[in-house]
Design goal:
This protein is α/β, with parallel strands linked by helices. It is built from 13 helices and 16 strands. It has a 14-stranded parallel β-sheet with strand order 1-2-3-5-7-8-9-10-11-12-13-14-15-16.
Length: 431
């Protein structure tokens, strides 16, 4: 406990206004970590703090701000008032700006003014999120943000000027449900030579995207596309492809075994069944291995694939055979009624792995197993070919299989030989 005299002595040694005498960088650091409304309210703390918020380089306008403003005033008026104060009072650069949870806005003219303001004040990190039912058409001033390094757009329409040559400093790009042509998208990416992370979630139909991004390390795609060409991405480490519509028969034939040649250092690969079919479209006779092994691949995830469908089983096995340094395999099985894989194809699976040993594989997870022959052969194979395996998790398809079937599958799996003495098989029979 502090004695009274000690307390008085401590107070006497302090400046009369501690807050006003904090270093400017400390004040800025404090305000950046506060919600914008609280940062503005800090102006009442002292005379020196009155306009500190006006020079904040990072601003966020989102639901937390709307919920704390006067609810008796309509949203449009509240937003207009906030934007007016920003445009009128803010000084200095704005390097990061987030605008989200916009609703019930009659028109976007005020947003256009805001984007123009940002384009003239050194914006580097920009997030714009608009409602699905009312996308925002980006104004011409948006394409003059020459210092843009991080960009995230949700429900926007992108129609760049004819003179637009891309964002030369762009490092991260995220486009979610935007309206953009394949040509514009390819041009935007190819003119962003420093791009390292690319996220695309586009449900509108795209025909062909060619990705030329020499610095790209991560690419995450969800949408409907006929072809994605990854030609100049030598440093790509993470690739996730989820196609939402089955590939068209008119797509033509692609060489699945050569698709990964441009990015041999890939470490994480995640494909769903439609993207797997897309990459293997027309390749009815897939080679046992890729033309160039994926020696860097550590994690392979395959979602909603049917191992009893030749068009999905063959490329899946090819990827496993071609990735000798795999550490983790995750396969989620989709049980659909299709023509089963011929017995002769299943019988050849063990021999096709005769020269393969997965010496680095430590973890395997199967979800949705029903006990079909291709599934059981793959389980058996991975147990026999993985001397360093630690754990294999098996989640059967409880909804589409009986208890008797699940117990039969469990009995069969317990008899499979294991190359690893430490391998633990966790099977959830649901009993």
């Amino acid at each position: 406990m502090m004695l009274p005299n000690d307390k008085n002595l401590c107070n006497a040694s302090l400046p009369p206004d501690v807050l006003s005498n904090l270093p400017e960088n400390v004040l800025d650091d404090i305000l950046i970590r506060m919600p914008l409304r609280d940062a503005v309210r800090s102006s009442i703390l002292s005379k020196k703090w009155r306009y500190y918020w006006c020079r904040l380089p990072e601003l966020t306008l989102d639901q937390t701000l709307w919920d704390t403003t006067d609810q008796s005033i309509c949203f449009v008026t509240r937003l207009t008032d906030i934007i007016y104060h920003l445009l009128a009072l803010h000084v200095g650069p704005i390097t990061k700006f987030i605008l989200s949870d916009i609703a019930n806005l009659g028109n976007y003219s005020k947003i256009d003014n805001l984007v123009l303001f940002l384009s003239k004040n050194g914006i580097q990190h920009l997030v714009l999120q608009f409602p699905k039912h009312k996308p925002y058409k980006l104004p011409s001033s948006f394409f003059t943000c020459s210092r843009m390094s991080h960009l995230s757009l949700h429900h926007c329409s992108i129609q760049p000027l004819s003179t637009f040559t891309g964002f030369s400093e762009l490092v991260k790009l995220e486009l979610c449900e935007v309206t953009i042509s394949s040509e514009m998208l390819g041009s935007l990416i190819s003119h962003s030579q420093l791009l390292e992370k690319l996220v695309l979630q586009i449900s509108s139909i795209l025909d062909h995207i060619q990705i030329d991004a020499p610095k790209l390390k991560s690419f995450d795609f969800t949408g409907n596309i006929e072809l994605i060409s990854l030609k100049k991405v030598p440093f790509l480490l993470e690739l996730s492809l989820f196609n939402t519509v089955a590939p068209s028969p008119e797509i033509g034939q692609h060489d699945f075994t050569k698709y990964f040649e441009s990015f041999p250092n890939l470490e994480h690969l995640h494909l769903d069944y439609l993207s797997l079919q897309l990459l293997a479209a027309g390749s009815y006779d897939i080679a046992a291995k890729l033309s160039s092994p994926l020696n860097g691949l550590k994690c392979l995830c395959l979602s909603d694939i049917c191992l009893d469908e030749l068009a999905e089983l063959s490329p899946a096995l090819c990827l496993i055979r071609s990735s000798p340094y795999l550490q983790d395999i995750q396969i989620k099985i989709d049980n659909v009624e299709l023509l089963p894989v011929p017995d002769d194809v299943v019988n050849e699976i063990p021999s096709s792995f005769s020269d393969v040993t997965l010496r680095h594989l430590r973890s395997v997870k199967f979800e949705g197993i029903t006990g079909k022959r291709p599934e059981m052969e793959l389980v058996k194979l991975l147990l026999a070919k993985s001397p360093m395996l630690v754990r294999m998790q098996i989640q059967p398809d409880i909804e589409n299989g009986s208890v008797e079937t699940r117990l039969k599958v469990l009995t069969e799996i317990t008899k499979f030989p294991r190359a690893s003495p430490k391998a633990q098989v966790d099977y959830n029979s649901g009993v």
